[in-house]
Each structure stands twice: as structure tokens, then as C-alpha cells.
Write a structure and sequence with these properties.
This protein has 13 helices and no strands. It is mainly alpha-helical. It folds into two domains: about 110 residues; about 100 residues. Helix 5 runs antiparallel to helix 7.
């Protein structure tokens, strides 16, 4: 199989959709395929860059392509991908399984994105939407190297100076996004904090203040 075809199986949206389908199947009724695909559509549309790079229409086209390859009996699919198809419930008809997922995604993509109150974020969705907040906890909070969260914020910001933009831009954006999506203490502690233990409204506002103070002090243009 040519390398550009093989890349479809190794990583990317086809694999993500099948991983969700497998997760639902292995949950033995705890999870809903419809809900997980709704979250997938929401994640894809969450930022203009994500939608620009790979909209749902492209995802469904790739799923259709892989379904055609399965229907044609194309050899060369990696064993791990075949196993993923099996786990997703493909059985003996992988093409039918893939086309069923395609049809569900196309239908869901025609609907408005689900509100987070109606469909709370799953753990995997939080990992996709807030990777820098999660990484900040691992690198700066959980080891206990600093006496307070504020000390962690200050140490992290100073560690990247003067090359702050690559580190602080996505971190601050995720913090502000979390405060907008989950504005109340109750909403955030129910959804985000169980996954990213340090992330509370108070902590995220403290991080944003530290970032803003640093940028004003160290990077703002002189009057």
C-alpha cells in the first residue's frame, strides 16, 4: 500500500472516529455513540483552525474512502487498524460499519453544535480542548515544588521569558476559554476539575492575572 494511503490508518480523523466507536462498544452500554460523535463534531468546530484544516465533510469523505477500500478487499491495512475496526464493531462487514458512522456524522454535522450544559464535555474532549492546562499541572503544580499556585504561575511564566509567546499564548487562551465555557464554580468543578485537578475558576483567573502582569511589565511597548 502506498504511503499516502497508509497514513489514513496510522493516525488522524478516521482513527479518532473508530476509537470513539470502540470506546462506546467496550463501555457495555455506559456510553452513547450518538453523544460521542456529537462531541467529535463539536471539537472539530471548536476553533476556526481545526475546522479549516479538517472539517467534518473531509472526515466523512475519508471514512467513505476507507469503506470503499474495505469493500474492494484491499490488502495492506495495518493489523492494528484491523483490530480497531473489530473493536469498533465492524464484524465481518467493515465497509457497512464505516458507512454507518459516516451517515451518523453527516446527520449530526447538519445540527447546531451542542451546548455544554446539554452535553457536558467528556474526559477525552477535555484532553483535546485543554492540553496546555493539563500539561501545566504535570509540569508546575503536582510535584509540589512551589508553595502556592501563585508561585507556580510566576515560576512558569519567568521560566519561558523572553520567549513567552509560544508558551503563554495557548495556555492563556485555554484558561480564558474554560472560564467562558464553564463560568460557574459548580460547572467547572463538575466537569473540568476532576480531569485537571488544579483548574478552578479562582486558579484560572490567577493564572491570567500573572500572564497579563508579566506581559504588561516585560513586553509592553514603552510609551
Amino acid at each position: 500500500m502506498t504511503s499516502h494511503i497508509g497514513g489514513i490508518f496510522r493516525d488522524g480523523p478516521v482513527r479518532r472516529v473508530l476509537e470513539l466507536a470502540a470506546m462506546v462498544r467496550e463501555s457495555e452500554g455506559t456510553l452513547s455513540l450518538d453523544d460521542e460523535l456529537r462531541r467529535f463534531v463539536r471539537v472539530t468546530a471548536a476553533t476556526s483552525s481545526a475546522e479549516w484544516l479538517c472539517p467534518v465533510t473531509t472526515v466523512t469523505a475519508l471514512l467513505d474512502h476507507v469503506a470503499d477500500l474495505c469493500a474492494d478487499g484491499t490488502d495492506g491495512m495495518p493489523p492494528l487498524f484491523r483490530d480497531l475496526l473489530r473493536r469498533a464493531g465492524a464484524g465481518t462487514d467493515a465497509a457497512a460499519c464505516l458507512r454507518s458512522l459516516t451517515g451518523k456524522l453527516r446527520a449530526l454535522d447538519q445540527r447546531p453544535a451542542d451546548d455544554h450544559d446539554q452535553l457536558p464535555m467528556a474526559r477525552w474532549e477535555i484532553g483535546v480542548r485543554f492540553p496546555h492546562l493539563a500539561g501545566f499541572g504535570v509540569n508546575w503544580v503536582y510535584e509540589g515544588d512551589h508553595a502556592t499556585l501563585e508561585d507556580s504561575f510566576q515560576a512558569a511564566v519567568e521560566s519561558e521569558h523572553p520567549f513567552c509567546d509560544a508558551f503563554l499564548t495557548p495556555l492563556a487562551a485555554e484558561a480564558q476559554s474554560a472560564l467562558v465555557l464553564l463560568p460557574s464554580e459548580q460547572a467547572m468543578t463538575a466537569v473540568l476539575t476532576p480531569v485537571i485537578g488544579w483548574a478552578t475558576p479562582q486558579a484560572l483567573r490567577g493564572l491570567l492575572r500573572t500572564v497579563d502582569d508579566h506581559m504588561q511589565r516585560e513586553h509592553a511597548a514603552a510609551p
